[in-house]
Amino acid sequence: MLSLYNDLTRKKEPFVPVQEGKVGFYSCGPTVYDYFHIGNARPFIVFDVLRRYMEFSGYEVTFVQNFTDVDDKMINRANEMGITMAELADKTIADYFEDADALGIKRATVYPRATEHIEEIIALVKKLQDTGHAYEVDGVVYFDVSSFPSYCKLSGQNLEELQSGSRVEVNSFKKNPLDFVLWKAKKPGEPSWDSPWGPGRPGWHIECSAMAMKYLGNTLDVHSGGTDLIFPHHENEIAQAEAATGEPFVKYWIHNEYILIDKEKMSKSLGNFMTAREARKHYSPMAIRMFMLSAHYRSPVNFGPDGIQQAAAALERLHNCWSDFTYAVANRQQSTGEVDIILQFMEKHREDFISAMDDDFNTAGALGHVFEAVSTVNGYLKNSDTLDKRVIDKVDRFFKDIDEVMGLLRIDSKSESDDSEIEALIARRLEARANKDFTTSDAIRDQLASKGIILEDTPQGTKWKRKI
Questions:
Q1: Residue 233 among known ligand-binding residues
Q2: Strand, helix or coil at 271?
Q3: Which of 150, 351, 118, 154 is nearest to 233 (CA)?
Q4: Is 382 annotated as a binding residue?
Q5: 255 in a labelled binding site
Q6: Is it true that the peptide bond before 232 is cis, omega within 30 degrees of 0?
Q7: What residue spans in the chain does CATH classification 3.40.50.620 cover?
Q8: pLDDT value, residue 299
Q9: Does domain 3-256 have CATH number 3.40.50.620?
Q10: Is 349 annotated as a binding residue?
């Protein structure tokens, strides 16, 4: 049974969703003013795997990831570029999908944009005001932190210490320095929407609460994000939502740790900032994905060439095993024999993989069991001239299961027509080699190489695989 470390209770708990068999999962998405950075890539990848594992385990998952498409950064960048905020959002969201798809991140069920949910946001702010949890000053609406006694229950911070040492922007109109903005009054040159408090736009925190509850109801099963979002963003989400509904907002709060670069937290001020787009220029997207999954999500990881190279080598070993297995299935005779021990090994590898994933989705531990299976399969292929049908089925199911969860092999990502084209070119190359037409043979090899196809000539024929 899956268990998750719940940051709200600060302990690992069995996962029991609100509605049996179904999961409402909200994961904080990017502010779409620029390419997302490699630090964002970590939660996008690891929580993609958690979502995949829940689906693999039989849950029907509604996965919601928002796009923040209105805030100060959006407005400033759009003005710098001489385009509208909406045009900037459209371009950046398209860039997001290009990078996310390359990293193997499965599309969410819903991608709500803040600007498309102004009606829900205004309704939530109005409800908070009507129930005494919010107040308006000159067109700005603030949440009254003092009206919510359990404020800071997620972060565990001391409210009195926060108040006395607050560095929150000084504002004489606030009742409390920790009170936060729900609705901002319009400023010159900014987009705005009509509201009961005059033209303006939503604050950052209210967006997620309104959109999450619209698609997942008053109580979510899972809400995820980076640890940097715990305070104040997620703390404020809880206050808004629970003050409005009187119900628990989220059952399981889960957060990933930071990405480090040169053993320091990545930040623009330190000059060690890297976007996912830039990282993809230097490293294979799947190697980046493997790297992110090679450590437990609650442990910080140091992003750098050594770690990525190790991840790439591990990924190549996995791909080579799958390639060798599929080639053997296509080119060796099938037989029956004494294979019980191999079947037992493969079943144990699968059980161990599931056990690791059930333990707070420990992807690092799970991958360790995957590579134990790789060793078992490699040994079987090396020592067997023929293949047993039972072993073929067991190994095939294992690889497809771990790919369904981890998304590292992309077994079903290429169409049969792509494979047929490659096979046809290989057949032409073999014919050219047989006719000693090495010019044509080399040209076909180069053509395939340009498509990322690597050929290996063996005594049994030519094997091919896609470059990682």
A1: yes
A2: coil
A3: 154
A4: no
A5: no
A6: yes
A7: 3-256
A8: 97
A9: yes
A10: no
